[in-house]
């Protein structure tokens, strides 16, 4: 319920910032679909209603399809892959899932293993393979340690065209760290193919934009993880994306402590120090994965991880409310009501060599 309310809040923030009511404004069509644990809003602007509606319905259908194909714990294509891996068998997938797995492999490698879509076992042990936030006892530390030791990695997958198997039976795929990004990229591609020029796909603050909002850019808010409201706004150029990984929405509360749904693959424990990472880029899949990886990297290491993942426009908020931004992000931030909430530190990314990674 809380998540739905927050998603709605983000959607409203987008609407409020993006639209200035004027009588001669071209029409705007809005559709919503509840998938990937969030409300996704599709806004199509400046098209005749029939064309906009059929494009929005097609996007809704696509997202529903991806939601069931890529689901981490309900029966579906990914569930079949996980079942096959556990038995040491080979699974057949469609081209779309094969491509996402290859992309996941590339991004996992670039992140130095911090973005790790093979840790479904750990995510499940922490109780996040459910529609409602987990409650009750914490997972058994021995179970966690055993799984960390088994070191499931997406690099263990053998992807041969559309056949998938794993060298490591501990691999359990959970695409939650970049599924929304990958899905919105496909949805944006489909909108373009259907001749839509100006649109927004908004998954609770994770956004892909097409074109512009009339004479202006689409303007999107970055939520404040501590209080109801936004830290800043960003005007997105045509084709840009903005993704936030938050540790304030989905968490496990136990004994007064909060355990986030982003897990450090090396310790098996939820991340603690960073509450929110926002990445601006041109590819939703990459931005979503990077936001998750930087959350794991923590307050010291995130700049190096950002560099390694080729993302230079980043905003990070830690548990103490410290706000850090790269120079490229700093240039893009716009105050919402007069001023920014607290001082924003500028953090320059280090000059390090890009890791050599591939999809193969
Ligand atoms: P949000 O859903 O808030 O946008 P993320 O994009 O960071 O947040 O996705 C979090 C989800 O990613 C978790 O629910 C889980 O399914 C998965 N996940 C958790 N830890 C990792 C990790 N280290 N690498 C990749 N995926 C992860
Ligand atoms: Mg993510």
Which labels suit this protein?
binds adenosine-5'-diphosphate, alpha+beta, three-stranded antiparallel sheet, single chain, 360 residues, 17 strands, 24% strand, globular, disordered N terminus, binds magnesium ion, 9 helices, nine-stranded mixed sheet
Quick structural overview:
By secondary structure, the protein is of the alpha+beta class.
Structure description:
The chain has 360 residues and is α+β, with helices and mostly antiparallel strands. The chain is built from nine helices and 17 strands. The chain has a nine-stranded mixed beta sheet, with helices on both faces. A three-stranded antiparallel beta sheet has the order 3-5-4. The model is unreliable at 1-22 (pLDDT under 50). It binds adenosine-5'-diphosphate and magnesium ion.
Topology diagram in text:
Elements: H1 2-18, E1 28-35, E2 38-45, H2 49-69, H3 77-87, E3 91-92, H4 95-110, H5 120-125, H6 141-150, E4 157-160, E5 163-166, H7 179-193, E6 198-203, E7 206-210, E8 218-223, E9 230-236, E10 241-246, E11 251-254, E12 257-260, E13 274-281, H8 284-308, E14 314-318, E15 323-325, H9 327-330, E16 333-334, E17 344-346
Parallel strand pairs: 15-17
Antiparallel strand pairs: 1-2, 2-6, 3-5, 4-5, 6-7, 7-10, 8-9, 9-16, 10-13, 11-12, 13-14, 14-15
Helix pairs in contact: 2-7, 4-8, 7-8
The structure holds adenosine-5'-diphosphate and magnesium ion (MG).
Q: Beta-sheet strand percentage?
A: 15-25%
Number of strands: 17
End-to-end Cα distance, whole Å, is 40 Å
What does the overall shape look like?
globular
Number of helical segments with 4 or more residues = 9
Structural class: alpha+beta
The average pLDDT is: 91
The ordered H/E elements are HEEHHEHHHEEHEEEEEEEEHEEHEE
| Rg value | 20 Å
Largest beta-sheet characterization: 9 strands, mixed
Strand order of the largest sheet: 1-2-6-7-10-13-14-15-17
Which bin fits the share of residues in helices? 25-40%
Contiguous runs where pLDDT drops below 50 for at least 5 residues: 1-22
């Amino acid at each position: 319920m809380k998540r739905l309310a927050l998603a709605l809040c983000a959607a409203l923030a987008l609407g409020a910032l993006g639209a200035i009511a004027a009588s001669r404004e071209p029409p705007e069509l809005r559709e919503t679909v509840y998938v990937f644990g969030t409300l996704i809003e599709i806004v199509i602007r400046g098209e005749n209603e029939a064309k906009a509606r059929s494009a929005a319905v097609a996007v809704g259908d696509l997202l529903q399809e991806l939601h069931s194909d890529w689901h981490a714990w309900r029966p579906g294509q990914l569930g079949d892959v996980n079942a096959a891996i556990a038995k040491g068998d080979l699974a057949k997938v469609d081209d779309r899932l094969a491509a996402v797995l290859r992309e996941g492999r590339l991004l996992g490698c670039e992140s130095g293993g911090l973005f790790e879509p093979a840790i479904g076992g750990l995510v499940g042990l922490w109780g996040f393979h459910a529609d409602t936030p987990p409650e009750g006892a914490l997972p058994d530390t021995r179970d966690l340690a055993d799984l960390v030791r088994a070191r499931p990695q997406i690099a263990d997958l053998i992807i041969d065209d559309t056949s998938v198997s794993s060298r490591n039976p501990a691999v359990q795929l959970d695409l939650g760290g970049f599924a929304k990004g990958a899905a919105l990229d496909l949805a944006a591609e489909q909108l373009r193919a259907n001749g839509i020029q100006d649109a927004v796909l908004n998954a609770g603050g994770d956004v892909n934009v097409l074109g512009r909002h009339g004479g202006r850019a689409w303007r999107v808010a970055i939520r404040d993880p501590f209080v109801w409201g936004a830290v800043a706004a960003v005007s997105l150029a045509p084709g840009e994306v903005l993704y936030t990984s938050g540790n304030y929405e989905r968490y496990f509360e136990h004994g007064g402590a909060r355990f986030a749904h982003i897990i450090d693959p090396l310790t098996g424990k939820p991340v603690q120090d960073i509450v929110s990472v926002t990445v601006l880029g041109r590819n939703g899949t990459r931005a979503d994965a990077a936001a998750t990886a930087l959350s794991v990297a923590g307050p010291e290491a995130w700049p190096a991880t950002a560099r390694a993942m080729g993302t230079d426009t980043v905003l990070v908020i830690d548990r103490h409310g410290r706000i850090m931004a790269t120079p490229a992000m700093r240039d893009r931030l716009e105050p919402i009501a007069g001023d920014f909430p607290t001082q924003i530190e500028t953090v320059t990314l280090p000059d390090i060599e890009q890791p050599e990674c591939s999809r193969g």
